[in-house]
Structure formats: structure tokens, C-alpha cells
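Retro notes, item 3 of 5
We never archived the inputs for the fructose -6-phosphate complex last cycle. Fixing that now. Sequence and ligand:
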Amino acid sequence: MCGIVGAISKDRNILPILITGLKNLEYRGYDSAGVAYLKNNKINIIKTRGKVNKLENKLNKNEISNIGIAHTRWATHGKATSNNAHPHRYKHITIVHNGIIENYEEMKNTLLKEKYSFKTDTDTEIAAGLLNYYYEKFNDINKVIKEFMNKVIGSYAIVIMIDNDVDNLYCLKKESPIVIGINDNINIIASDIRAITKYTDKYYTLNDYEYAKVNINDIIIYDKDNNIIKKDIKEYKEENNNNSKGHYKHYMLKEIMEQKETIYNTVKPYINSIGSLLKLPDLTKYKEISIVGCGTAYHAGLVAKYLFEELTNTRCNVYLASEYRYQNNFLSKDTLTIFISQSGETADTISALKLVKSKNYPTLGIINVKETTISSLVDTCLYTKAGNEIAVASTKAYTAQISILSLLVLVTGYRNKTINENKVLEVLNEFKDIDNLVTPLLNKKNTYLSIAKKIYKEKDIFYIGRGLDYYLSMEGALKLKEISYIHSESYAAGELKHGTISLIEKNTKVLSSATNTKLNSKTISNLKEVLARGADIYLITDENYKDDTFTIINIPKASYFIKPILVIIPYQLIAYYTALLKGTNIDKPKNLAKSVTVE
Ligand code: F6R
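Structure as it came back at the time:
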């Protein structure tokens, strides 16, 4: 993962630009950070463990430079230490890198034979060594980069500074993204446009195996055979995104609260009438739907599977992107594969997509961020309108994903006649009224806080449910564990008695939802089973249960197309308030990153 920035300017101090750029890229990782810049004609490197703020504090405020590179890291090879932080330097070459050099052991052994020695545990230091080796051999940077790209296996976006060539930055890429922003007095290289939009809206993107030489006068882009290529300049159009925390303590809470608008914004183009709904792609021409995603996006896929299969009789399989590439997926032209991703840059999802594309099978993307690798590769892309999701734990992107997926199910059912017109109109009206359905749930702070007070000291928490409620419990458990660090797992309620129930003891906390008329009585029986073993139960339901042995959170009645939204909001807020009581770093939980750009 990691975020990289490089900047060069005629007359501006680039150090604040590098720091601002890194702060905007912290969603890609934030365990250590570093910067290399030209000072008195020498490259000076400052690194630290921790977030970009710490690096900023370490930098002398009066320091000025007009060329430099910087990095925010999510550790892959080697612990999150200052020593392993980037930039890495080998003699003449200093680099920052996003990606993984898969054959770094082999490269290292080659270099060790050439009497090279290394001080860190990173694959990036080996990459710096290899670039230095070729630099000393060829003394020609075009040959160096070409040879490097020929020899190295893996993914990389690299920005290079060279001791004897301090007027230029060089950048190269394979599989990890690079943009180059252009302005009259500054050129900026970065992992994505968020790092450059404060300074320019004009930029180039590089394709795999392309590289560029960037200086104050020019940006020269080459293909892998060292031919100069002409590329179109792209223009970034600012979305109306409010990136401030407003009066909220955390982005996560703000984003949860925003769901009353973001769900509506996402479905708005399709809910005015049946005619608007029919603007969505026709999935009835496929025999089967496959859905691929990671984490929360995968959970959104599971909700869609349930709805497709139960309500439209359409077969649907959901796959974890990290597994997809390494299994037999029985693909054919009659299967539509849907790729769900908030960021559009998740490496596992991209790899799975490339696999499907390599066979020329149909693809559809459900993506939140514009101009991403996934949105550019899929045949058709539907955008969720969740706006910038800044908190690492995904909330509003998830409800936007399940909303658009619900509409895809609805239109499929209308087209294949498994859902009648009245039902379609009823669901469209529910979406039109979504604000009134979700606002009362968002406002039940005291309920969630009182549950949080009961669970925040626990070590293990169980989430159980059946059918759709099981899939929602997976997302509920993920939310809790990722931000509160409490071990929480979800289980199909009926499966507990086949093993897991042995873990239930007096006061074990069990969270559940029962919102399926067909299955509720069974779920309640399973809850009684854990109650009999001493569990303390919290139940989200749209039924009118009167059972004071459970703590009940009532949600409004709604169709199956809306229910998932209403169940997940209490789960999200219970997770939030539990983490708040634990005092964790809610927006940037340990070990995580917003965009997972390594496999
Ligand atoms: C959990 C979370 C992650 C992401 C996953 C996929 O809150 O945010 O599980 O959902 O890393 O990310 P995207 O959707 O960007 O592909």
C-alpha cells in the first residue's frame, strides 16, 4: 500500500507540499513516514515511526527545498520502524515505493554477490540497491529503468532522486498507481489525485511499464522501450465533497450520520419511476451473477446474493477477491461478475478483475471513488454517491453499495417477472422516504451508548443471525473488531450448536438481529439456547417482541430491500460507541489502511 509524493518547483518550498500530500494519502497507510529533499546540493533524509504529523514535527520549520520525495507507509516487509521507513537510499539512488517487489530475495542474492549490503528488512531497499547497481553499470537512467522493469517481478510505483542529477525526479509504475500533476511553477508526482488537487487540476496518469522524467520545465513520458510517448492531460473536476469533520468528534460518526443523504444520493437517479429504474443494466441476460470484493464490500455482496436468490430466483455467488484468483471460478460468458469496491484501488479486487477481463467475460463495477483502476477496467461502472469516506472503517460506502445492489435486484425481479409492479413502486417509495426511516435510528445514541457500556470491557463478542441477518452480523462484527479491537465473530445462528456454543458462558455477550418473518422463530430459539448457558443478549428486530430476558433494539418495518440498511445502523453505532469508550484511534485503527493496494 503506502502513499508516495514527489515534488519539484522553480520558486516554491516543496516541503509543505510533500507533507500536505502525505496527509491526504494517509488512508493508504500510516505506520511510519519519511521525506528526502535537496539541501545544500545534498539529499537529506528524515524518517520516523508513526503518522505524518510526527514527521512534520521532526522537520525544521525553517527548512526550504525545491525538490523532494516523501512516503507514508503500511508495513509489508519489515516492521513499522524508523529504519524501515522510506525513503530508502543506496549510494546514488534514493527512492520511495508503493507496492511489493516479489522477487526481492533473488535480487538481494544477486546484489550480495556484487558486495552490496543492506541495513533494513524492506524489499524497497533492495529495489534502491538494484537501481544503483544498474546506474553504476549503464550511467544512463533510461537503460537503468528499462532493465529494472525487465528484472523485477511484483508491483511498484517508485519515485527516484539521483545524487548527480538533482534537477530531475523519475517515476515508474507497474500495478500501483501514479499521477503527475502539472502546474506553472510546480510538478507533483503522487499515488493519487487527492495529494495534488490543492495545487493543480491538470494531471497525467501512467500506465503499467511507463515511466517519466519530471523537472521544472518538462514532463517527459516514456514507454518500456524508452520511446517518448504523448499522453493526454486529464482534468480533475472537484466533487462537492465536504471533507471537514464538522462538529463530530470522528469522521466515522460523521459518515454514519451522513447515511441519510448518501443512500438517497446513490439511488436518486433510479427511483423516480419504473422508467428510471430501468436505466440500470439488464442482468436477466446472464444465467448467473458472481460478486467479488473484500471486507465490507464482500459483505455487501453477500446481502445482494441473498436478495438475488430469494427474490428474483437468480443464482448468485460471492467471492473474496483474495481467494478468487487462485480457485476455479467456473466462469463463462453467461456469468456477469460484479466487482464492489469503495476505493476502486484494492489490489486483490483488481487482480480478480484482470483475470475475468483476460478471458473477455462481462464485468460490472460498483465503485465509490471516480477515476480509479477498477472503474477504468470494468465494462460498465455504477458509482455509489457516498462522497469521500475518510474513516478507515467503511460505513456510508457499505450502505450505498447495498442500496444500489438492492435496486439491481429490484430491476432484475421486475424484468424477469419475479417481482410485480406494485412491489417495485412500494420499494421505490421506501427509498424516496429513506431519510425518515433511518433518522430515528441514527438518533438513538443513548440506546447504543448504554449497550456499549455493557460490552466495551469484553474480550470476545458473538454476532449471530440467520439468512440476511447472518450476512449483516458479519459486517456488524467486522465493524466492532476493527475499531474497538475486541475479538468479535459472527456465526450462522443455527450453526452454534455444532461447536461454537461451547464458548458461551455466563455473561458472554451475544448480538443478533432477527428481521426475517420466515426465520425469526428459529433465531429466537437459538438465542434461548445461548441464554440458557448464561449469555447476555442484544437483539435488533422489527418484530414486536416482549421479552425482558433480551435487550431489544427496535427498528422500523420495511421491505427486504431496505432492511439491511436499518439493521446495520445500530451495529455501526454500537461499534462506534464501544470504541469511543475504549479510547481507540477510531478513524485510523492500528494496523489498517483505508485502501489496501497490496495483495
Ligand atoms: C472495513 C473496510 C475494509 C474494506 C476492504 C475493501 O471497514 O473498510 O474491509 O471494505 O478493504 O475496500 P474497497 O471497498 O476499497 O475495495
